Amino acid sequence: MASGSKVWSVFSLGAAVAAAAVAKKGLNTSWRLATGKNPPANPADPDVQLWEAVLWAAASGTFVALARMLATRRAAHYYQRSTGQLPPALQSDAQQADMAKAPTA
C-alpha cells in the first residue's frame, strides 16, 4: 500500500497546485475587471489601502482553498475509480479495519 500512498501524494499535490494556479489566474483577471487595476502584490504593504488588502486576502484565500479542495476531491474520485478504494489518507477507520489482515492464532 506504500506505493499507492506515494501515487496518491503526487497525484493530489499535482491536482491541488494546478487548481490553485488556475484559481489565482481567474482571481487576478476578475480583480482587474472589477477594480481597473492589478491586485496588490503584497497586501501587507502600508501603501496598499486597508480595504483593498483585506478584500484581496479574503477573496484569494477563499477561492484558492476552495479550488484546491475541489481538485483534491475530484482526484480522490478518480483514484477510487482507478484502484477500487479511496486513497489511504482519506480512508475512514472502518475501511482501514476491513482491509487489515485478520490476526492468526
Key traits:
mainly alpha; 3 helices; elongated; 105 residues; 0% strand
Describe the structure.
With 105 residues, the chain is mainly α. It contains 3 helices and no strands. It has helices at residues 2-35, 50-83, 93-99. The longest helix is centred in the N-terminal third of the chain and has 34 residues, at 2-35. The radius of gyration is 20 Å and the shape is elongated. The model has no long low-confidence stretch (mean pLDDT 86).
Q: Beta-sheet strand percentage?
A: under 5%
Largest sheet: none
Give the oligomer, counting copies of the same chain as homo and different chains as hetero: single chain
- Count every helix, treating DSSP H or I runs of 4 or more residues as helices: 3
Strand-pairing-aware structural class: mainly alpha
Low-confidence stretches: none
> What is the count of structural domains?
1
How far the N terminus sits from the C terminus, by CA atoms, comes to 24 Å
Q: What's the overall geometry?
A: elongated
Gyration radius from CA atoms, angstroms: 20 Å
Topology pattern, helix = H, strand = E: HHH
